[in-house]
C-alpha cells in the first residue's frame, strides 16, 4: 500500500508513492531508480509493487 504502478513503457514501469514521488523500475535489469535493489540485491518496495500484481516468484528477482 506504500505505492502503486502508474504506468509502463517499453523499458520500465513507473510507480508512484503516496507522497507523489515517482520511481522507474526495470525488471529485466533488476534496477530501480531508488538504487536499493542494486545495492542490496533484494527487491525494493517499488519493484515489489510491480511484481505483486504480476504474480511472479520474488526469488527470481533477488541477487545471489
Can you lay out the helices and strands and say which pair or pack?
Elements: E1 3-8, E2 13-17, E3 22-26, E4 31-32, H1 36-40, H2 45-54
Antiparallel strand pairs: 1-2, 2-3, 3-4
Uncertain spans, ≥5 residues at pLDDT below 50?
none
Q: What is the CA-atom radius of gyration, in angstroms?
A: 11 Å
Shape: globular
Main sheet specs: 4 strands, antiparallel
Please report the number of helical segments. Answer: 2
What structural category characterises the helix and strand content? alpha+beta
Residue share in β-strands? 25-35%
Tell me roughly what share of residues is in helical segments.
Answer: 10-25%
Number of domains: 1
One letter per element, helices H and strands E, the order comes to EEEEHH
Strand order of the largest sheet: 1-2-3-4
Amino acid at each position: 500500500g506504500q505505492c502503486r504502478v502508474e504506468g509502463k513503457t517499453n523499458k520500465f514501469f513507473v510507480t508512484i508513492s503516496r507522497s507523489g514521488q515517482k520511481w522507474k523500475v526495470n525488471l529485466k535489469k533488476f534496477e530501480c531508480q531508488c538504487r536499493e535493489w542494486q545495492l542490496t540485491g533484494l527487491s525494493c518496495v517499488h519493484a515489489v509493487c510491480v511484481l505483486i500484481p504480476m504474480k511472479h516468484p520474488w526469488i527470481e528477482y533477488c541477487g545471489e
